[in-house]
Specification:
The structure is a homodimer. By secondary structure, chain A is of the alpha/beta class. Chain A has 17 helices and 27 strands. Chain A has a nine-stranded mixed β-sheet with strand order 18-17-16-20-19-22-21-23-24, with helices on both faces. In chain A, β23 and β24 form a beta hairpin. In chain A, α3 (132-139) packs parallel to α5. The longest helix of chain A is centred in the first third of the chain and has 19 residues, at 85-103. Chain A is globular and about 90 Å long. In chain A, 57% of the residues are buried. At the A-B interface, β1, β2, β3, α6 and α7 of A face β1, β2, β3, α6 and α7 of B.
């Protein structure tokens, strides 16, 4: 293939016209040309390197890697560094190997990190444990380019033997270590970084990011479905104040400072988690455009999803240069930023309308090692007429919860939820063979009847269910068990479910179908009175014990402030 | 050590005030502070990371590594990546080991590259050969951080077995490969780069540098004693034209382009060769200041001698961050850019006036394996009254020569030089035991009498001598032999010499003494009629056969255009 086009060159921050020869999957030759009025330019628009998402959990898209690729190429993404942390919690090495195998069936660049923290907590039952020998097994693989986010920062700070061994192995295999250290600062951050943990994607405010960057970390700015940190980290006013403060020192000339304001300082833009109903509308293409709207130099923003991650993870990607794999995209212009075509290894995989490859149907194994439930499994028992209970208070779109207290009526020895106080029942059903159920109460969902259930519940992915009555809760859970995982909405009048039979996390369908079904479920939950925008996501984080204040696992109601289990019924 | 100072942070392109704790040679803690009118700032001026020269041949300073360190710290340099290519040509591995050992005697960061091309040519006798097994021996050393400049680009392009093996070894040991490919472009450059040769320091014009950069090379901008490429590569007009050309495409917004103009695009500033009489006045500090005068953003220029080379060669240097080796300098301000103090591993090594460490006296071994010469050794014999000879025409400050022809008188069978035509005698005396002498003629030196000789003669470093009469030439060469190398000026009336007893390349004295003696020799040469600014340097390059057109080695007069030896006397 030979053609002329304008190349956006992230190596020289410029655009130049060139005659390009592509063959054997690589850029064979790139010869800059001088453009005159007569010169024919074959490609309308602009050639860019394909985008790289350097930190994403594919499982959050609820799609198989192959289906993820199909939607990602529509948005100009050609490579991802993905951390299969979720499936690893469900099915360990076997799950990761499924991801790698499935990824290899499509023309897309999947790189992996070895999930460093499986299980994420010892306060919940997970499906698997990855010890340091498992990590070594993974680090030896060519597809694995990094040690995944080290969430266990207490383990790092306390010198936990297995944690330190995993970090040492990453250095031994010469693979960079990704960090995850929300709000860690000062001496603790110094100590964390002593272990060569070199990236962080958890910065939620400018000064946090600046501290980490000043200490030598590479900062991943998140623009995902759950976490959106671009406004905070690219904030123009914050930057102006930061530099003005310096200008007042009189040390840096004003013109240098003015130019500096448009420079993003930080290193990568990543999505971390991207849900199907967002993913159908855009990926990094949308983030780059948004960065520009926030005042970031457009080419600098593009560097953050091309050459920067490619250099860091040593990927054969990120720039349009002779000898490199011919991954590139064509966009209309830097303002509208529409993806017109996507090429991977020299082959067109998206022609502006259709994706030109198929994703294979996956034969799923059941990962729901759990018996069917009865309404009795979801009762909280208490003598007397009423009792005081500890209640999880959740908020729309937030991972954080608060601990509150409610007085509930008891009837025939069972504690009754109260829709007038918006205090519903919540339960976690262990799905890894132990059949444990923990029941508690939650405020914030707003359901007036029925129940909703999910087998996506970070990070151990047991079944989580919220509802008004025990019968509906049992029915919702049993629907999930029949479906081998997924989401379910159940009520006396109507109900539906999204089946996620792959490890209880991923569908076999494509992004559009999954998004559509998710949309229907959201509408049904809303019809049942639910006040949350993404009830399944909010529910999924109710089991994420590391985020305070009150959470729930299959082992009990967990107080994230005191880091211990507490009773549901207050004594 | 605890103090407050303004830090110039190359990671965030900014300046911030902080409380700094240094101990055990590293930055123990760095805590940003808020400055009020009452805050006491202990350090006047600005704290910067120490500078890193990422490509230098220490031998060109005519100083031992230890003495080089003593002058370099005065200018804020704390690290160098040096290629001991010159001493390797004289004494092989033993010479390199001397450099490493001597470097270790002083508090300064010497990193080395393994010289990839020893000997540089097969058309001259050198003192040593480094084959791929020698390279492997060197690459295993911790001090060796790269494979040195691959000058043998024909060898790369033709797939020479030993060359390819050396390149493979560098990759095997995970050490980057430095390039040296003047004017290489197009498909040949592509092929050269296929071997993972990733830097180039030979770019002498903007479009050459842009091509290499666009292809993915990191560009070292040279500001040395011999080669000065900053004006060409930082040229404001060139850049404006380059970007304007793009602006005319209408693809990149004008404000983005305007900011872009001050961005240097290229990666490092290096010196390559720095002679003692330049070195006493400055090193990278002078280059950064000059870059700023050329319109480059000052902090970007500083990045080119700090974080950029440190990242590339994975050095524990380049930024002021907790846990890093405490190499830093204090400058007065970004305009005057005077180095006030230099610290290495937390110790002050230059206090603004004195260097606070000593360089050891080196016990030298003789490396002049050559017998004393007689005037007869420097005669060109020819029958008849006159003859036509091929003459090297040299130019002030240039490595390039031209081939010219002169008619010379003969007397008693000997061809006579002619000061009226400025045609003098030149000879190369082999110093590695073979005792070969090649005689020829040269135009451009302007000597009216006497002779000058040098044991610095790139790259094989045989003895080279230029003069009017054979007696003086023999005396100059014999002076060098007595001195175990160096420079000599000899005439009937006066004469002097600079002794370079270490491999015939380096002195035991300090930079100021060597520069002073060199200055005296230059004045003497000038008094003998020499018209060149640096006659010894010009002479030293007359044996550098790879640079056209006519050069001389111990094996004969060499035509660099036809790449063959030719006769002195034209037939």
């Amino acid at each position: 293939m030979k053609f002329t086009a304008y190349i956006l060159d992230v190596l020289t921050n410029s655009v130049y016209p060139a005659r390009i020869t592509v063959g054997d999957g690589v850029f064979k030759e790139i010869v800059p040309i001088h453009v005159t009025e007569e010169t024919k330019i074959d490609v309308e628009g602009l050639l860019l390197p394909g985008f790289i998402d350097s930190h994403i959990h594919i499982e959050s898209s609820m799609l198989t890697p192959a289906q993820f690729a199909k939607i990602a190429v529509r948005h100009g993404t050609t490579s991802v560094v993905c951390d299969p942390h979720e499936i690893a919690n469900v099915s360990g090495i076997k799950g990761i190997e499924f991801m790698i195998d499935n990824a290899s069936t499509v023309p897309f660049n999947f790189y992996f990190s070895a999930p460093s923290c499986v299980p994420a907590t010892s306060f919940e039952t997970s499906g698997a444990v990855l010890d340091s020998s498992d990590i070594e097994f993974l680090l030896k693989k060519d597809e694995v380019v990094a040690l995944g986010e080290m969430m266990n920062f207490p383990g790092v700070l306390n010198g936990d033997e297995e944690v330190i061994r995993k970090l040492e192995l990453a250095r031994m295999y010469n693979k960079p270590i990704d960090g995850h250290a929300p709000l860690l600062s000062g001496k603790e951050l110094d100590k964390y970084m002593e272990q060569y943990i070199i990236t962080d994607h958890e910065c939620s405010n400018f000064s946090e990011a600046i501290e980490k960057k000043q200490k030598g970390m590479k900062i991943m700015v998140r623009d995902g479905s759950s976490a959106k940190n671009m406004e905070a980290l690219f904030d123009f006013t914050e930057r102006v104040n930061h530099w003005k403060n310096q200008a007042s020192f009189g040390i840096i000339p004003t013109d240098v400072l003015e130019r500096r304001i448009h420079s993003p300082i930080f290193d990568f833009i990543v999505s971390d988690d991207k849900h199907p109903n967002d993913l159908i509308y855009g990926h990094l293409n949308k983030s780059v455009k948004k960065a520009k709207e926030l005042g970031v130099d457009i080419i600098k923003a593009i560097e953050m999803v091309t050459i920067n991650p490619a250099s860091h993870y040593k990927l054969d990607a990120g720039a349009i240069v002779t000898g490199a794999k011919a991954d590139f995209i064509i966009i209309d212009n830097l303002d509208d930023f529409n993806i017109q075509k996507t090429y991977i290894a020299g082959e067109c995989v998206f022609d502006g309308e259709n994706v030109l490859f198929d994703a294979p149907e996956v034969q799923t194994e059941n990962s729901m090692y759990v018996d069917k439930k009865t309404p009795e499994d979801f009762e909280v028992y208490c003598d007397g007429d009423e009792c005081e209970v500890n209640v999880i208070k959740c908020y729309n779109g937030e991972l954080l919860t608060k601990k509150t207290v409610a007085t509930l009526k008891c009837c025939e020895g069972k504690v009754k939820p109260d829709i007038y106080q918006d205090v519903l029942k919540i339960a976690v059903v262990e799905r890894y063979g132990g059949n444990k159920v923990t029941n508690a109460f939650i405020k914030g969902f707003g359901l007036k009847k029925g129940a909703i259930a999910s087998s996506v519940a970070h990070d151990s992915h047991n079944i989580i269910v919220v509802g008004y009555d025990s019968k509906m809760m049992a029915e919702a859970v049993n629907t999930l068990i029949d479906n081998r995982g997924g989401f379910a909405v159940v009520s006396e009048d109507f109900g539906d479910s999204l089946s996620l039979p792959i490890a209880g996390l991923m569908s076999n369908e494509d992004a559009f179908d999954v998004a559509k079904k998710l949309d229907i479920l959201h509408k049904m939950a809303s019809a049942l009175g639910c006040k949350l925008d993404s009830p399944f996501m909010t529910m999924a984080f109710m089991a994420l014990l590391v985020i305070p204040s009150l959470k729930i696992s299959d082992l009990g109601l967990f107080d994230g402030d005191s880091f211990e289990f507490i009773d549901v019924i207050k004594n």
